[in-house]
């Protein structure tokens, strides 16, 4: 009898801390879910209210588009973004895509740089100079034009092509990069973005592997955006470079194949989603 009592006490001594630990985990999970819901509600409210500060960037980009600039004193109005010279409506919804004149798959920024070179006479270095403003700084002409062009596809369905071998290769390379682990902490894009229920601070981390309405589409379809924490309009190129930095990877060059391939991977996974840009983010 005494041995059974002792054994029961020992089991109770193990079971009670285990129950407390399990209860603590449940409480933490509930608290995390509550914070995520509050964060989502905050962002939804800000997007519903309207008056996004990035509206000023769109206006500035529209003026720059029609302004004669560069050594050739020309506008950007004949820029071919994939649907023909000067066609903006729906162009961003189909980028990145392959361009025969450059022999490359290009995203929005890289294609704008090509147009600034060929139409206006800027060098590549001049076109992308200080492309990403400091926090709370003023967006550059390249970003302002990107905001304007992207907004011309607002409300349209994402339809990024996979017709050429180059486009298919960009997608496959982007997928490999997404899951590639490296750096001092063996991180990958998938570390944060391949499971549901993860978050950073109040922001839910989208599952970019999931091509459903609550996965990649949630994130991709809302860029370019105005992140309140940055105090300046940002594009997907910036977001990709920021992710590399957060993984402690070497920073890739702007408009590099690595960045464009990752954007292609996420974009194709988002096909069919409706663009809402610019959006307001944390």
From TrEMBL:
- The record's active-site residues are 243
Q: What EC designation does it have?
A: 2.8.5.2
Q: What cellular component terms from Gene Ontology apply here?
A: cytochrome complex; periplasmic space
Q: How is the cofactor bound?
A: Binds 2 heme groups per subunit.
One GO term under biological process is: sulfur oxidation
Look up the coiled coil feature and give its residue ranges. none
Q: Which Pfam families match?
A: SoxA-TsdA_cyt-c
Recorded GO molecular functions are: electron transfer activity; heme binding; metal ion binding; oxidoreductase activity, acting on a sulfur group of donors, cytochrome as acceptor; transferase activity
| Signal peptide start-end | 1-31
Reactions this protein catalyses = L-cysteinyl-[SoxY protein] + thiosulfate + 2 Fe(III)-[cytochrome c] = S-sulfosulfanyl-L-cysteinyl-[SoxY protein] + 2 Fe(II)-[cytochrome c] + 2 H(+); S-sulfanyl-L-cysteinyl-[SoxY protein] + thiosulfate + 2 Fe(III)-[cytochrome c] = S-(2-sulfodisulfanyl)-L-cysteinyl-[SoxY protein] + 2 Fe(II)-[cytochrome c] + 2 H(+)
Task: Write down what this protein is called.
Answer: SoxAX cytochrome complex subunit A
- What organism, scientifically named, is this protein from? Thiomonas bhubaneswarensis
